[in-house]
Amino acid sequence: MSDAGIKPAPQTASTAPAAAGTASVLDIFIEFLIIGATSFGGGVVAYLRNGLVAKREWVDDKEFVEMLSISQTLPGLNATNMAILVGDKLRGALGSIAAIVGVCLPGAVLMYIAGMLYHEHGDRPLVTAALKGVAAAAVGLILATAMQLGKKSLSHNHDLIFIALTVIGVNRLHQSVPRVLIAVGILAILWYYPRKSDKRGEATQ
């Protein structure tokens, strides 16, 4: 019997890998240029998630949290560290260069202009009030992003214990962020590491 009339079954692929695979160096530069130009008030994490996860689908929430954790444990700004990681994931070294130039360029130009204006008019009450409002908005953006990521990243109730330990270590014990993250990470490894009883249970199924 001839196979000519038999149509192959359609193959489906997830949208995130497809979007990541089609990202060009120019796409990476433009997206990070937009993020760098619009991430006002210090809430850059929210803008990064919106651009990279929700809009472009270059990474998912799990990858975003992992990259953010790496960015926070290493020296440097979260935005530049994330740019290097995401750019390298998408297009290697060229992607990293395009991402970091894109995210830094708007801020460098605008901050140079803002620095000159602040030097001349920074003591005015209107400017001071505006800066206080922007600072409060930045806290709201970070909180909103933390809630969005928490819904998808916190799989168990006892994950809240690790959050509490991190907050206590940084805010109450005044330990450095890398030190606290390393300590909490070790505790998490010990907690989630598969035990022998769990392995036996999986083997018998």
What would you note in describing this structure?
This protein has 205 residues and is mainly alpha-helical. It folds into two domains: 16-153, no CATH class; 154-193, no CATH class. Helices cover 77% and strands 0% of the residues. It contains nine helices and no strands. It has helices at 15-21, 25-38, 44-55, 61-73, 78-121, 125-153, 159-172, 177-192, 196-204. Helix 2 (25-38) packs across helix 5 and helix 7 (159-172) packs antiparallel against helix 8. It is globular. The chain starts with 14 loop residues before the first helix and ends with a helix.
Which labels suit this protein?
single chain; 205 residues; mainly alpha; 2 domains; 77% helix
Topology:
Blueprint: H1 15-21, H2 25-38, H3 44-55, H4 61-73, H5 78-121, H6 125-153, H7 159-172, H8 177-192, H9 196-204
Helix pairs in contact: 2-3, 2-5, 3-6, 4-5, 7-8
